[in-house]
Amino acid sequence: MFKKKQNLYLDRDYSRNLDMFKTELGEGENFDIIVREIKIADKQAALICIDGLVKDDILTEIMQSLFRLKKERLSGSLKKLLENGIPYIELNTESNIDELLYAVLSGSILMLVDGCSEAFVIDARTYPARNPEEPDIERVVRGSRDGFTETIVFNTALLRRRVRDPKLRVKLLRVGKRSKADVCVCYIEDIANSDIVDEIIERISGIEIDAIPMAEKSVEELIMPGKWWNPFPRVRYTERPDVAATHLFEGHVLIMVDTSPSAMIAPVTYFHHIQHAEEYRQNPAVGVYIRWIRFLAVIASLIVTPLWLLLALSPELLPESLKFIGPKETGNVPLFLQFLIAEISLDLMRMAAIHTPSPLATSLGVIAALLIGDIAVNMGLLVPEVILYTAVVAVGSYSTPSYEMAMANRLVRLFILMGTGLFRLPGFIITSVLALLLAGFTRSLNVPYLWPLLPFNYRALKSVLLRSPVPVQNIRPEILKTRDDRRQPAPAFKKRRP
Questions:
Q1: Which residue has the higher pLDDT, 129 or 290?
Q2: For residue 4, pLDDT beyond 50
Q3: Which end of the chain has fewer CB atoms surrounding its CB within 10 Å, N or C?
Q4: CB neighbour class for 2 (10 Å; exposed up to 12, middle 13-18, buried from 19)
Q5: How much is the pLDDT for 409?
Q6: In the chain, domain spans
Q7: Of 14-18, 175-179, 490-494, the least confident
Q8: How far apart are CA 91 and CA 95, in angstroms?
Q9: Cβ atoms within 10 Å of 55's Cβ, excluding its own
Q10: DSSP annotation string for 13-82
């Protein structure tokens, strides 16, 4: 199936065309394949579609219109019949058999007419879909409540509602030899770097796998080859249309996959993963405060437990005024193993919460807090400080806007924790430096991951550390090398009186 096949085309033999489609689609074996043979002005015709993917009312109207066609209407070309006979907008003709099979399997209606070497493709598809809802992991106090869904057409509509720019390009690609999934690449033509756009489209077009059932995650791993074991995410996921639109205006490229509500943003840096829409839904002073609190939470999720373990194992590193930090009693289990037990227990609780029905979630919290935590302390399995600091890093992880970055930080923390537990101060320093080097050498489509820290860019770093007011956001990120580097001619200060 991976060999290139010659393109096959329809001929004028209606029976041969119909038998071929029945065989290829498994008509008679598949209960949801519908083949409806009709007569249109004394000519044999057939409508082929998939039950559940077609709008019944539109199909009924099309059939009624076809029944009203007179014999003399078929004397002209198929194009004329298309323009005058079928009252539907999304129509086209096609003779390539592979394209016609793809159209039917995508939900379109295929119409074959005797004596015609082309077939109608009537795009009257409808997919099982849910209403746009606010994403659970990207909630805001104030702001829009809509979010992407599993239907790519709805997602592009939500995006175009916010980006009413004629230069917005929405290119549809097909991925998977068998799945033939729709992948959409979105960018603003006169803003985005054409080299980045071309590279993304080339990588997606070069995918030769048979299917991508895991949708956007499969595409990410296929277009970001090498360094698969690097935990740092090289694209950012979002389910918010406003976040996606903001990145488009900055010069990023958006990748959406049908059947997934998550859109990929590329290229990105580490700092893109720790920014949240809530910062821009408040005034600048509050936004700066929220951002700094989040930065502290991310830092805490990385080093609090390894640092406390280091100070507990090497109390000589503490000055006299901070001697209280260490535990009074170490318990029956070494502190290093206690932290490993606590980290594994935390992940088990997280996974259990995902698979626990909502009505039982409260019971799960009671079990975690009372039965496990309290009994573990009373038995001497864990000391209270271990539970306290593990809870601190858990809060820090949940405060990280990007779930993928939170998981990457979790692995980095475990790496530093193990180095600290085994080798104390040298282990803490070496593992921390290795983690920093890993992030420093990571690239997202040739964009340095730690930019604007490495390489250093003062103006961009200031905009990362401080949530700048919208009137002074007049320059796009330099690292993207956008075609239009300015969002406005100059900062939009208030007009002075003459």
A1: 290
A2: no
A3: C
A4: exposed
A5: 96
A6: 14-122, 152-268, 280-447
A7: 490-494
A8: 14
A9: 14
A10: -HHHHHHHHHHHHTBTTBTTEEEEEEEETTEEEEEEEETTSB-HHHHHHHHHHHHT--GGGGGS-HHHHH
